[in-house]
Amino acid sequence: MTRYYESTNPFLVHGPRGFEEFKLLESFGMYVRMDFPGVPEECVRVSLDPAKKSLAVYADAPKVHRYDLAQRKYLSVIETVCRCCVFDRFTYQMSDGVLRLHLSKSNIDPSHSSCIEFKYSAFGEDISGNDMDESYESKQLEDGNLYVRLDMPGVPKDNFTVSVANGKVNVTGQAPALDHDSGSRLYSSDVVILSGPVDFPSHQVKTIIKNEGFYAINNEFLMNGPKGFQEYKMLENDIMFVRMDFPGVPEDGVSVTLEPSKTLVSVSAHAPKVHTHDFSHRNYLIITGLVCGCCEISGFTYHMTDGVLRLHLSKTNILHPQRSSCNSFLGGIRFRGDDLCRCPQRLPYNRDPYHPDLTGPLLIPHPNVRQGTTMAYESKQLESGSLYVRLDMPGVPKDNFNVSVSSGRVKVTGQAPAVSHDSDGRFYSGDVAMLSAPVDVPSRPIKTIIKDGVIRLLIPSV
Question: Which PANTHER family match (predicted)?
């Protein structure tokens, strides 16, 4: 039978145990640490009852990922069990899934000091009504992937580490001692065993820490700059500027056609299979244009570079030539699988590329890929023991990529400058692989192929 250092959390290997910690402070104050994993700072409420004999703490942990079993709700109550004292004030702070509460109480008889008696009760349920006492949750997905949720309360986002060795996926987290915590906490455990004893998983292990998710749901490596696969901007003289990300497409691999109606422009692009380990080639198709009945497209120009198409569309008012054209514009007819979805996506001509809806925990596939892979990351474990990785970083010139290794982590960064009427430049960065040894210089060099906003890496085994 397995014996854990802490029965309430199998991942805790060192530090203070238990979901709560109580400590009497000077001047008869009380310090309470409560673990509420998954609860953001704004989702906790502390309430003192009118009689000042009990204090209730309510906390909500939202369902962050669609594979989470349910939302979680917490309730804790602290009561005085004596007749002589009342709570007179409190302060609290919530961070990294931990609530730290300061309570002071006083004796009803001012001539006497307050006592130290109190009672604590805790309750927890998910929204389905199940008792909530599990710090680990996993789900086997239909595509063969495994989804795992781990509770490591108190660990800041930057203090998590995920590694793979001999087919074991290990997660560690360091929670520093804050406020009056009796000590720091260290979590560590193997959480998954892969089907083979590899040091490189065949696909990247994706992580979501806390609730922020990805800066840009269109590309997990985008850290700064305009988000989204497309950007639309109305310029002077009734010209529409459109930026479209087509990673992997060379300059001569795109075709733009004005439909006979002069209201729609179709854009098709082909990204060839550059390396033998690429999953496949990619074909893109998007139809964009006008949704009004008063204007027509009078001309267009475009330029394709570093996996980004920049299109300028000019239009005129055909019903009232003396008037300016309107601002009605079609964002694009999307493809779903092999079927053309003819429900147009109407986008405001000045859609905000920094809109908060473009940030979240779930990555979305490229909506304009008609054939081939739709995601920005692809990896493949080779028979030689090497790992092949493909990353999309559209807009990054060949000389603006950088590959580095530190403590066994292979990191790729890329700087995409603002070109034409782009709202700004874009910065990409991310760890793409973990070597089997924590080295800063691999024994064999990492080979790279950089072309058309895509970087491919052949990472040898250590």
Answer: 23.5 KDA HEAT SHOCK PROTEIN, MITOCHONDRIAL (PTHR46991), SHSP DOMAIN-CONTAINING PROTEIN (PTHR46991:SF23)
Query: Taking a C-beta distance cutoff of 8 angstroms, is the pair 145, 27 a contact?
Result: no
CA 401 to chain CA centroid, Å, is 22
What is the phi-psi region of residue 97: left when phi exceeds 0, alpha when psi lies from -120 to 50, beta otherwise? Answer: left
Cα–Cα distance, 301 to 77 (Å, whole number): 66
Q: What is the mean pLDDT of the chain?
A: 82
The confidence score (pLDDT) of residue 253 equals 97
Count of positions (residues) in the chain:
462
In contact, 314 and 239? CB cutoff 8 Å: yes
355: nearest Cα among 453, 218, 157, 211: 218
Structure tokens at 69: 């079993």
Residue type, 256: V
**Around Cβ 96, how many Cβ atoms within 10 Å?**
21
Dump pLDDT digits (tens) for 219-244: 989 988 999 999 988 887 778 899 99
Tens digit of each residue's pLDDT (9 = 90 or more) over 282-297: 999 998 877 777 888 8
